[in-house]
Design a protein that fits this description.
The protein is of the alpha+beta class. 17% of the residues lie in helices and 32% in strands. Strands 12, 13, 14, 15, 16, 17, 18, 19, 20 and 21 form a 10-stranded mixed sheet that branches.
């Protein structure tokens, strides 16, 4: 077999209504995965296992327990609690039985004890994402139980946790009653070994179309310049700063799931690629950097394109990641590699830098749909000639061949109807946090193991809503289109709270504002004197960010952010050999100065950047009045990490910089506690949030790309606390920061 894979997902969801959860109502997730690890003699293994997750109880079987509930016993079991950490490790070549191929790996580890860890593998990123969400859904209830005091995990013996790397004795079977609502992931072991060319049905979480615009406003002027085989080709006519060339893109709708299209685009199987890829059909893997990045070599013999008189070859890197909305992005950048120097008989070409964006569209019946976009960078001098009197020469170029790949993909899937269908599925939504009123028999057993101690990463009740785009047109529940034009934007201003009204709610009115001498509050990175200034910071308005409006829960309307509540007074740009934690406790930190100790409240946001050396970008936000403990901000400051992780949100926006960096970073709001590890330090008059970017392989890959272009980048960041009910809306911007072309060598050693 060419590949080892787990079949696709079938979903039946639990009711999301906010009512007390009983044994019969509690949903479960189950399916076949590969359990990865090292045995007692040091040999790696990849075993087929059946996982069953019910509530926050996890069971592992060698066979499907539904085949014979009275005889099939779990080989492991345990609980999901509040220190479990999950990490998507991307693709990895694995061997199971007689098959070898690429699988997608999800890692588990304990935030408090790194020795307790393990890995499972799935066939597609979508399956990994569904297991990821299922574990977070389990923690959603467990975290509520922890904070409310109703959780049975209060009685756990944390010294007896389950460890996937250690063989454990058999335990008693799982009680089968109360499983009417089952999220079934995987069709069965008979389909686990399959050819790489057989891309089966992908069942993905249904979602509405996401427009290109995210939660920060972007300056693009896309103009359709040509239509080829039903695929539109656009030119970005905006004079964006920091670009190295002209940006073109082709856009088309493909009747297939985002997972099927991603697998096809990323596949190296020539039998598949020859069916649709005219240029890069013959690819060879040179090096797998990590699960989200590799380097490939390709060659093309001009048998069909007569305008190429010689054989050509090329080397490029591919980086991919899947967003919290389930959409895929693939970056393709020309590079070199020692394994493939230029060779006689071939002309070495540089493939134009390009990006694939594969986004979900609303499915019609059982046919999945996705919007496929490919962006390609071309040199301005060539494009000026091509779009003028020599357009026919453009049709004989590498950029044109790349742009035509979207049309080729569409026709390929249209010619293979078996790849287009999508089994009916429902969205797996977490239930509202409510106490469990009845425990199952399984819960009454002596389950004193903890599968993994889980960190507080709460799932949003409307998880896809964080990534809703601020589109020009949106569809309401009745299917009617609502135009969000200028008049809508003007009307929405009435829904936005002023900074004064926000301060009256979030800050204490009992104490008068403290007079602060701002000149005494300084960081290592200087404040900007003008927009053209470099290696500095400033604090922009929040009007460039879109946040949830007052009526968001009913119509998903978003509004401009407005002025931040807290004032940015200083920024530190630090470096050290190891990750920098607890900056606020350093004697030389702003917080520890005489002036700093007089400030009623300081929010310290420490973005920890993995590199060599490690960097930390530390922003200090202050308030002239104490925080109202009854407000949303007060609950965030004084509340548990569980609550903080579920609410702390960041919106990025590359204002100026290379277009590929812009697309990789994006402009969509991200719940940081779900994406990366966040550590909190609450003392005296400050709260420090240490954001460990290196804890996520995806975030680590993106930040490495950003660091390569950092001296030409202007980036805006907005932080806020997510509002989830009507009393917490509209949202408000907590603080902003703009970083102007920061230099790595200007970082100060700590």
């Amino acid at each position: 077999m060419d590949a080892v894979a787990v079949e696709r997902t079938e979903i039946a969801s639990a009711s999301p209504e906010p009512e007390p959860e009983t044994t019969s109502e509690r949903s479960a997730a189950a399916g076949w995965v590969y359990h990865l690890g090292v045995n007692s003699i040091g040999h790696q293994f990849c075993h087929l296992r059946y996982l069953l997750l019910r509530g926050n109880c996890l069971f592992m079987y060698k066979r499907d327990p539904h085949d014979n509930p009275t005889a099939i016993l779990p080989i492991r079991k345990g609980l999901i609690t509040h220190t479990l950490m999950l990490q998507d490790l991307g693709r990895r070549k694995l061997t199971a039985g007689t098959g070898t191929g690429d699988l997608y790996v999800l890692a588990f580890y304990n935030r408090l004890d790194g020795a307790k860890k393990g890995e499972i593998a799935c066939a597609t990123p979508a399956e990994v994402r569904k297991w990821y969400d299922a574990f977070h859904q389990a923690k959603h209830q467990a975290e509520y139980d922890l904070t409310s005091g109703t959780g049975r995990h209060r009685r756990l013996n944390t010294d007896d946790e389950i460890n996937l790397e250690v063989r454990r004795p058999r335990v008693r079977r799982y009680a089968q009653h109360g499983l009417q609502k089952l999220v079934k992931i995987g069709k069965g072991p008979e389909m686990l070994l399959r050819q790489a060319s057989k891309i089966g049905n992908n069942n993905v979480l249904s979602a509405n179309i996401d427009d290109e615009t995210g939660d920060a406003l972007e300056a693009h002027d896309w103009r359709c310049v040509r239509t080829i085989n039903g695929i539109r080709i656009f030119e970005d006519a905006a004079n964006s700063k920091g670009g190295k060339g002209i940006l073109l893109k082709s856009v088309g709708v493909v009747n297939a799931s985002v997972d099927s299209v991603f697998e096809m685009v990323f596949s190296l199987d020539k039998r598949n690629r020859y069916d649709w890829d005219i240029l890069t059909g013959d690819l060879e893997l040179l090096e797998a950097k990590d699960g989200h990045c590799d380097i490939v070599y390709g060659k093309y013999e001009p048998k069909y394109l007569s305008w190429w008189n010689s054989k050509i070859d090329f080397v490029f890197s591919r980086q991919w990641f899947q967003g919290q909305d389930g959409n895929y992005t693939i970056l393709q950048i020309p590079t070199t590699h020692k394994k493939k120097p230029s060779k006689s008989g071939y002309q070495r070409k540089k493939i134009n830098p390009s990006i694939w964006e594969i986004g979900k569209l609303a499915s019609l019946g059982h046919v999945a749909k996705c919007l496929v976009t490919q962006m390609v960078e071309v040199q301005p001098s060539f494009w000026d000639r091509w779009k003028g009197s020599q357009l026919e020469k453009f049709e004989k170029s590498i950029p044109f061949s790349l742009l035509c790949q979207v049309a080729c993909l569409r026709e390929y899937f249209a010619a293979n109807p078996a790849l287009m269908s999508e089994s009916p599925s429902a969205i797996m939504q977490p239930k509202l946090l409510v106490p469990s009123s009845v425990n199952s028999d399984a819960e009454d057993q002596d389950t004193n193991d903890e599968f993994y101690d889980a960190i507080a990463i709460a799932e949003d009740e409307d998880s896809d809503d964080d990534n809703d785009d601020f589109a020009d047109a949106d569809a309401d529940k009745g299917g009617k289109v609502k135009l969000k034009n200028v008049s809508w934007a003007i009307a929405s201003l009435a829904l936005k709270r002023s900074k004064a009204s926000v301060a009256d709610i979030e800050l204490s009115g009992a104490s008068p504002p403290v007079l602060i001498d701002w000149s005494q509050l300084n960081g290592s990175l200087r404040q900007a004197k003008s927009e053209q200034d470099s290696n500095c910071w400033s604090s922009p308005s929040g009007d460039g960010f879109m946040i949830r409006g007052k009526t968001y829960l009913t119509d998903r309307s978003k509004i401009a952010g407005g002025d931040p509540l807290l004032k940015l007074v200083a920024v530190d740009w630090l470096k050290a050999e190891h990750r920098i934690d607890a900056v606020a406790l350093n004697p030389k930190c702003l917080v520890q100065t005489v002036a700093g100790k007089k400030i009623p409240f300081i929010l310290v946001v420490n973005l920890q950047i993995p590199a060599s050396p490690n960097y930390s970008l530390v922003a200090y936000y202050v308030s002239e009045r104490p925080v109202n403990k009854e407000s949303l901000l007060g609950r965030f400051v004084e509340g548990p990490d569980v609550f903080r992780d579920s609410r702390f949100k960041l919106i990025p926006s590359i204002v100026e910089g290379y277009w590929m960096v812009k697309r990789a970073v994006g402009t969509k709001a991200c719940l940081l506690g779900k994406a990366v590890t966040c550590r909190y330090l609450r003392q005296d008059n400050f709260l420090e949030i240490d954001v460990d970017i290196g804890s996520s392989s995806v975030a680590r890959s993106i930040i490495s790309l950003v660091l390569g272009y950092i001296t030409g980048i202007v980036v805006d960041l907005a932080i806020l606390i997510e509002g989830k009910d009507e009393k917490e809306l509209p949202e408000y911007i907590l603080g902003t920061v703009r970083l102007n072309r920061v230099r790595l060598d200007s970082a100060v050693p700590l």
